[in-house]
Amino acid sequence: MEFKAQSIADFLGGTIDGDPNVTVFDVAKIEEGRPGTLAFLSNPKYNKYLYETEASIVIINQNFELEAPVSTTLIRVPDAYKAFASLLELYQQAKGNKTGIENPSFIDPSAQTGKDIYVGAFAYVGKNVKIGNHVKIYPQVYIGDNTVIGDDTILFAGVKIYEDTKIGEACVIHSGAVIGADGFGFAPTEDGSYKKIPQVGNVVIEDNVEIGANTTVDCATMGSTIIRKGTKIDNLVQIAHNVEVGENTVMAAHTGIAGSTKVGKNCMFGGHVGIAGHITVGDNVSMGAMSGVHSSIKSNKTVLGAPAMDIAQAAKVFAIYRNLPSLRDQVIELQKQVKQLANKLEE
């Protein structure tokens, strides 16, 4: 698939410096550009590569001033980063525009399917499933009974969706994710063993949610585990039973949220964050990587550390950590001095 510079500029509403008829068939980073590729420049740290790149077309900011001649065709736009993101989205859509039902795959006769869907080989669609328009179900996906999947959602290879799950429109769930497995519910018994508590709830995922590879979202014990619209979840994240995650919250890999915790909207969690169960995290909360959260946090806070604390306090604590070796030496020296003074007093 080839695109001319003029077509790209028209799509982005940009202007061309160079050959409007030059064509590209692939994308590349500016430092790795080669003939036939499209790159972009928005970070000043990479300015030098503009004069070295072999990419055929480079998207730059409208006000960028050249310091030397360039061999590539330039497309000037108000925001090069956003423009390139729009092109990548278009490129991805064109690249992954699969339709049709491959064999062998199984769709239960009671399932309802929309138009222009794609079902890959070895996929399984259970009873009374409802699949919207333009949904893409890649090979080896399992969709349990009574699941609902909204328009334009993509389930990549190997995704497992348990029964009764509700997934909204324009969601993306990456390979290996498991949605709706049992929550971790076991009651201790008198003999020291554990009795499993049936998990009879479901998972609700609203529109425009993205869930990373090998992430798990457990079903509720009763009611629903809920991921609100616009939320973006990285790979290898664990969301426990009856958790509710607010709109447009983002969380990085290895985050774990224990059962029945409520997370507000527009929160940002770094990697390896751990959040205890049955607490509330307010709106607009940011958590630094490896934060350990054991109690509720009010809205508009930034926390860090384990146990998590306000970032200003955490900075003071970390400064003390760094000085612990020298502080230890000082304490030992003071102990020696105190002992010497005590001995003199005894004499």
Please give a structural write-up.
- There is one protein chain.
- The strands form 6 sheets. This protein has a 12-stranded mixed sheet with strand order 8-11-14-17-20-25-28-31-34-37-39-40.
- It is α/β, with parallel strands linked by helices.
- The mean pLDDT is 95.
- The longest helix has 36 residues, at 311-346.
- It contains 4 helices and 40 strands.
- It has 3 domains: 3-95, 3-Layer(aba) Sandwich (Udp-n-acetylmuramoylalanyl-d-glutamate--2,6- Diaminopimelate Ligase, Chain: A, domain 1); 100-310, Hexapeptide repeat proteins (UDP N-Acetylglucosamine Acyltransferase, domain 1); 316-347.
- It is 18% helix and 29% strand.
Low-pLDDT segments: none
Q: Give the total of domains.
A: 3
What's the helical proportion of residues? 10-25%
Q: What strand order characterises the main sheet?
A: 8-11-14-17-20-25-28-31-34-37-39-40
Q: How large is the count of helical segments?
A: 4
CATH architecture of the largest domain: 3 Solenoid
From the structure above, extract its key features.
ten-stranded parallel β-sheet; 4 helices; 40 strands; twelve-stranded mixed β-sheet; UDP N-Acetylglucosamine Acyltransferase, domain 1; 29% strand; alpha/beta; 18% helix; 347 residues; 3 domains; Udp-n-acetylmuramoylalanyl-d-glutamate--2,6- Diaminopimelate Ligase, Chain: A, domain 1
